[in-house]
């Protein structure tokens, strides 16, 4: 039973968030929302334990499509970074602000960049592309994320300073156009760099939150040095160029791990 502890803990964490938000904000939507996300994540981990090959992808589709289609397109909530700034500026603790607080700011203290492996609707599409592991070494282009982060902030701040009307509608269209742009840039970069996750490594502004917070992550890949034979098979399958054999938190690209467990699956000694 010990091996089922992780999905149970994940379910418990999300249920705690669901019930707390439901009762404190007096809105039953949060009970449904976080219960659904928690159950999807727990299901993915459970299927992984059962050695089902597409376990992570199932969770990615369950959560990613729910947020993109149901919350974003049908519910008219801008769930991107612009939506976070928008609700933050208006002082409303709602969908995007709660989503960012749970999945991208405080959640990573527990589950690192699990969001990037199991829930992101951008990566949900990029992971279907042919370059699951990068064909070339990582480029020094990570600075671009700070530019896109700043642009997102300036865009929303400018709308507020200009007292633009009908902001809700603008934010909805910003969500649609922003996603189309993200998908277009992500797909082009994947083919140019021969790396499905090039967008995540160089462009995604959300990593400005995700990386520092996941530095302190409770759940992370660790290497049992007494079992490791330095065969290097783990590094060959990592989509994020992580050196997972180095257990220090300062390891190269340590805050890049998306907890996909590909390295653990590939390890012949069960050292990860
Ligand atoms: S880095 Fe950005 S685009 Fe990539 S999975 Fe994470 S949140 Fe999604
Ligand atoms: S292969 Fe391992 S180190 Fe690389 S992202 Fe996946 S879980 Fe993290
Ligand atoms: S695959 Fe396993 S044994 Fe090989 S280097 Fe990685 S951790 Fe060590």
Give an overview of the whole structure.
The protein has 272 residues and is mostly helical. Among the domains are: 79-214, no CATH class; 222-272, Alpha-Beta Plaits (2-Layer Sandwich). It is built from 14 helices and no strands. The chain has helices at 5-25, 29-49, 55-74, 81-90, 95-106, 108-111, 114-118, 121-126, 144-161, 167-193, 198-202, 207-214, 233-237, 262-266. Helix 2 (29-49) runs antiparallel to helix 3 (55-74) and helix 4 (81-90) runs parallel beside helix 9. Residues 116, 120, 122-123, 199-200, 204, 206-207 line the site of one iron/sulfur cluster.
Decide which structural class fits the backbone.
mainly alpha
| Percent range for β-strand residues | under 5%
**Helix/strand order, N-terminal first:** HHHHHHHHHHHHHH
Q: What's the overall average pLDDT, rounded?
A: 92
Number of helices: 14
The distinct ligands, each listed once, are: iron/sulfur cluster
**Count of DSSP E strands?**
0
Helix proportion of residues, in percent?
Answer: 55-70%
Major β-sheet annotation: none
Quick one: overall form?
globular
**Rounded radius of gyration (Å):** 19 Å
Low-confidence stretches: none
> How far apart, in Å, are the first and last alpha carbons?
20 Å
